[in-house]
Specification:
The complex is a heterodimer. Chain A is mainly alpha-helical. In chain A, 75% of the residues lie in helices and 3% in strands. The chains are: A mainly alpha, B alpha/beta.
Chain lengths: 336, 433
């Protein structure tokens, strides 16, 4: 009972921190917070894909599919922005479904390269076809999230604080969904497909179908993150979703760790702080490639299970000290 | 949201007003007496350009140049704005050529740093900044005219009339080397490359030079240029045009042209850090290359009509501090500051609205390469480009030399319809963008 109430307390505390956080930041840091929130959804969705053991190099492009689709739905058909975001996510999932047919004829390294090639083909489509994708200049003046009022609160989505709250709700709900999926029998099967694919196949699991399912669901969430981005900055172009962004996603994932849902999220937060706060504050932007490379090497050498392993150790220590306290109390209580 | 709850909705007036208030902490210093004029608070100017990544070559050298400009102006006592002596302070933000980071940078510079004017490279990053400009009314400058449109009411292109000035290089080449009759071209397929492709096609057509094949458009992540160069050379052209390729592309393409034995004419918008190209190839190979950006130690820069202050000294100081780093943009942001500060002095104000209206009021301006007119309605939908003369530069004996200053408006008066035709074919007219 005490542990349930403690857990509720922790969640309430976290929620309070997330609500108050933007008000402790400067305007530009609030802007960074919005992009960080969107990137958290992107990197968490990438981890969902990796549950089946496959690493893709096309995830940033899939994010772009959601961004382009949502932008076009609002611009061409006048669809209400929140609905177009959901449709953008569905389009990204649909594109992933189509790509899965050729891609899942491959595994491992071949899948990795195949996903890169598929992503580049999509990017070339955006570049080549000015109608409807805008060619190299992309799509500009994308409809923003419409402003609205709730009682005395006014939500102006040009302001980063309003958009942060909106995206935090969307990303929070998405993370909860991904967590539920992982804890469900489907999620357990994803793990089985990763670690014991022959055994899983022998027990009747359709390995390819589950890999496809993970790819499609992860792509849907990546597409949603793209839609959130597009309606905030008001513009998309092919260069936004290039290999550089994919390298960032991989770096966040590797440095954060992939054993838990919060691993890549920690990696994303830590490196965003390093990039946007530390390097900028000290005028060391020119050192970015060096710092990222160094962090990657240090992480692989000294923290192979990622930053999440530090959190896990901390939690284990707290749990064991709590256990020791409880046992000590029991020893002191006569007749216990 | 909470700001709104407190009744502070982000209108344009509030946005700028709060920025001024933020900057106003130093206003006390203006009460101190000066020798001739009262000392006002420093004027903060934003520099929002890529300082890292593949496009940094058109950001970092500009920041270096503008810092030299600020040192000179401040050493001379600043500028007189409304009876106060005002110094300059530049605040930079690396947008990494990413629209979302450009948006963040623009809001930081306006909201937190209280800048009065923001200089950008433009291109892909302008799309992220445009909503901020619309909302705040901040005055921005770009080096790329293709960012301009009827809706960009607070965006100016005072230094570069890119890509239109590229026509001067082709025109000069056609007049001086009439035997060159066929050309090929390659460019990265992006917001910078495509309008430039349309311009070179128009210039070639006007000069009677035949394109042997359609321009080769490559992805901006391309690193291997051997197949592109092989394909270009397969048609045995007299001229290879490198369009407006980024410095990171010009160098490997030149290396490939050298390695594959090309000995014809090369024309390019830029040849940044051409000394490095010579090191990788040879003086003989680069001899005769035509481009558009002079070294400022050139004697031709001392002519009476040049408005850039003390260009030879600027070149000397720049090269002392940043040897081998002189490039197309090294002087451009400094020249924009010449134009902006003259307007601020005339307006007696540094507020964006006042400076903008003063700049455009006469319809003319003092461009670095001579007096020019605000132009562009025909091609960009708004007269926000300062268009006049532009130099044609040729490498001779391993050194860039200005061959002539040519009038861009004169070319446009004769061949404007050809340019519009090609711009439309590449989807670059205002109604298509």
């Amino acid at each position: 009972m005490r542990s349930v109430s403690g857990r509720v307390g922790i969640w309430l505390l976290l929620a309070a921190v997330l609500v108050l956080l933007p008000h402790a930041l400067s305007f530009s840091q609030q802007e960074i917070l919005v992009f960080l929130t969107i990137n958290i959804l992107l990197v968490a969705s990438y981890r969902l894909l990796t549950l089946t053991g496959e690493w893709s190099l096309g995830h940033a492009v899939i994010m772009g599919v959601g961004a382009y689709a949502s932008a076009l739905y609002t611009k061409e058909f006048g669809i209400f922005v929140p609905v177009s975001m959901v449709l953008g996510a569905c389009t990204a999932a649909l594109v992933a479904m189509i790509l899965s047919y050729p891609l899942f004829r491959m595994k491992g390294f071949y899948f990795l390269i195949g996903s890169f090639a598929a992503g580049e083909i999509i990017r070339l489509f955006w570049n080549r076809f000015r109608e409807p994708f805008g060619g190299p200049k992309g799509i500009k003046r994308i409809d923003p999230m419409p402003d609205f009022d709730i009682l005395v609160w006014q939500f102006d989505f040009f302001e980063p604080v309003s958009y942060y709250y909106f995206s935090a709700v969307v990303v929070g709900a998405s993370l909860w969904l991904m967590w539920r999926i992982e804890r469900s029998p489907v999620g357990l099967t994803f793990h089985a497909v990763h670690w014991q694919d022959k055994l899983a196949e022998a027990t009747g699991v359709n390995v390819r179908a589950y890999r496809t399912l993970a790819f499609v669901v992860a792509s849907g969430f990546a597409g949603l993150s793209g839609a959130l981005l597009a309606h905030y900055i008001g513009a998309v172009n092919p260069n936004i979703f290039d290999l550089e962004l994919m390298v960032f996603v991989l770096t966040w994932t590797i440095i954060g760790g992939t054993a838990t849902i919060y691993g890549p999220v920690i990696g994303c937060i830590a490196l965003t702080i390093v990039n946007e706060i530390v390097l900028r504050e000290f005028g060391l932007e020119q050192m970015r490639p060096f710092v990222y490379g160094l962090l990657m090497i240090v992480s692989v050498l000294f923290l192979p299970k990622g930053l999440e392993s530090l959190v896990q150790k901390g939690l284990a220590r707290i749990a064991s000290s709590g256990l020791d306290r409880d046992m000590g109390r029991e020893r002191e209580t006569p007749g216990s | 949201m909470f700001a709104n709850f407190l009744g502070k909705s982000q209108t344009r007036r509030k946005f700028l007003g709060s920025a001024s208030a933020f900057a106003g902490f130093s206003a006390l210093s203006s009460a101190l007496p000066g020798r001739a004029l009262a000392q006002g608070e420093p004027i903060k100017i934003g520099f929002l350009a890529p300082l890292t990544g593949p496009v940094a070559g058109w950001g970092k050298p500009g920041l270096d140049g503008v810092q030299i400009w600020a040192e000179w102006v401040n050493a001379a006592g600043g500028i007189n704005v409304g009876g106060e002596s005002r110094m300059f302070e530049f605040i930079s933000y690396d947008n990494e050529y990413d629209p979302s980071k450009a948006r963040t940078g623009a809001t930081k510079l306006i909201q937190e740093d209280g800048v009065k004017f923001i200089m950008m490279l433009g291109g892909d990053t302008w799309a992220g900044v445009q909503p901020v400009a619309d909302r705040t009314g901040m005055l921005f400058s770009t080096l790329l005219n293709s960012d301009l449109g009827p809706e960009t009411t607070t965006l100016l292109a005072p230094a570069e009339s890119h890509p239109v000035y590229n026509v001067t290089g082709v025109e000069w080449m056609a007049e001086n080397y009439p035997d060159l009759k066929t050309a090929v071209m390659c460019a990265q397929e992006d917001a910078l490359g495509l309008p430039s492709v349309a311009t070179y096609l128009a210039a070639f057509e006007a000069a009677g030079i035949e394109m042997l094949e359609d321009p080769i458009l490559f992805d901006w992540e391309t690193t291997d240029f051997a197949p592109i160069v092989t394909r270009m050379l397969s048609s045995d052209p007299d001229i290879v045009s490198l369009d407006t390729c980024y410095p990171d592309y010009v160098h490997p393409i030149m290396e490939q042209l050298f390695q594959q034995g090309y000995s014809g004419q090369v024309i390019s918008c830029t040849a940044d850090f051409y000394g490095q190209i010579i090191e990788k190839t040879s003086v003989e190979f680069v001899e005769g290359m035509i481009f558009q950006f002079p070294d400022f130690d050139d004697p031709a820069m001392n002519q009476d009509f040049i408005n850039f202050q003390n260009p030879n000294k600027f070149w000397e100081v720049y090269n002392e501090r940043y040897p081998g780093q002189w490039g197309a943009v090294s002087w451009e942001y400094a020249s924009i500051m010449d134009i902006w500060s003259a307007a601020a002095v005339e307006a007696g104000s540094v507020e964006p609205d006042d400076v903008l209206s003063t700049l455009l009021a006469s319809g003319t301006g003092k461009h670095a390469f001579g007096d020019a007119s605000w132009w562009g309605e025909d091609l960009f939908g708004v007269d926000h480009t300062l268009l006049g003369n532009w130099p044609v530069v040729r490498i001779e004996g391993g050194k860039a030399r200005i061959k002539e200053f040519r009038s861009v408006p004169a070319w446009y008066d004769k061949h404007g319809e050809i340019l519009k035709k090609h711009m439309r074919a590449y989807g670059q007219m205002p109604d298509q963008r």
